[in-house]
Amino acid sequence: MDIILLGPPGAGKGTQSQRLVEHHGMRQLSTGDMLRAAVKAETAVGKEAKAIMESGGLVSDEIVSRLIDDELASMNDSVGAIFDGYPRTKAQAEALDDILAKHNRSLDHVIELEVNEDALVDRITGRFTCANCGAGYHDRYKLPRVEGVCDKCGSTKFKRRPDDNEETVRKRMQEYRAKTAPILPGYEERGIVTRIDGMAAIDEVTDALEEVLR
Ligand code: AP5
To answer: Region annotation NMP: residue ranges (predicted)?
Structure first.
């Protein structure tokens, strides 16, 4: 099963993707994670993407679509894909159709996490992750059980994303409204869109997602 998780920054796409990976052995294809890895490795793609990401703009359609194509090429056909943060423009949505056809795959669901944008700023500006294993935490909603120690791997090093400040988050939301939300009607015409209340508690959102996948 191949699905798209759609929603503005902080809607919970990454959080829910990780759960689907754990529960169903699906693979998360997050263009944000791929780009951050490229920035860290200082590749040509990373050098081009760095400033754009830090400003809250969108990296070029060609670059992100190539990343997705390469990931799918490396995947076993029987493993379901969760597209997290891709597609984000009409051009990317069209490219995804071509890429899926090339790999003999097709989209089963597009799931939109509906959220209140003001709450998202709070979610994003408070989040941090373990620098070692990537486990996610939040200053107010999800602190490690032992202060300063990762629950999952015991590391004491944490990090925050450079684009998680209020100004950049607002710009990312603007981009979502202007360029990403307009791709939904095309999927609605195909009858594959489900909307889920992304403001509910994390477990409730997971339950709703599981219901869709069933
Ligand atoms: P990307 O990494 O995709 O970021 P994003 O879409 O802005 O989404 P986030 O990762 O910030 O949020 P999320 O929805 O995953 O929320 P999360 O689960 O972490 O993209 C970053 C940048 O890369 C872009 O700005 C762009 O420059 C570039 N880029 C990436 N893809 C691109 C593309 N296709 N084309 C062009 N450019 C691209 O949750 C957030 C916080 O909320 C966490 O702390 C979590 O614990 C908490 N939380 C989650 N759910 C709940 C809940 N239900 N209740 C309470 N708290 C919750």
So the answer is: 30-59
Task: Tell me the per-residue pLDDT of 109-120, one tens digit each, with 9 for 90 and over.
Answer: 999 999 998 889
| Closest CA to ligand 1's atom 42 | 123
Closest Cα to atom 12, ligand 1: which residue? 10
Structure tokens that stand for 95 in this block? 């490219």
Return the domain boundaries, the chain: 2-117+164-213
Distance from Cα 97 to the centre of ligand 1, integer Å? 23
What is the topology classification, in CATH, of domain 2-117+164-213?
A: Rossmann fold (3.40.50)
**Rounded CA gap, 206 and 192, in Å?**
18
Round to whole Å and give the CA distance between 150 and 135.
8
User: What ipTM, to 2 d.p.?
Assistant: 0.95
For ligand 1, whether the C-beta of 91 sits within 6 Å is no
Q: Tell me the sheet residues that pair with 158.
A: 130
**pTM (2 d.p.):** 0.93
Which SS3 state, helix, strand or coil, does residue 154 take? Answer: coil
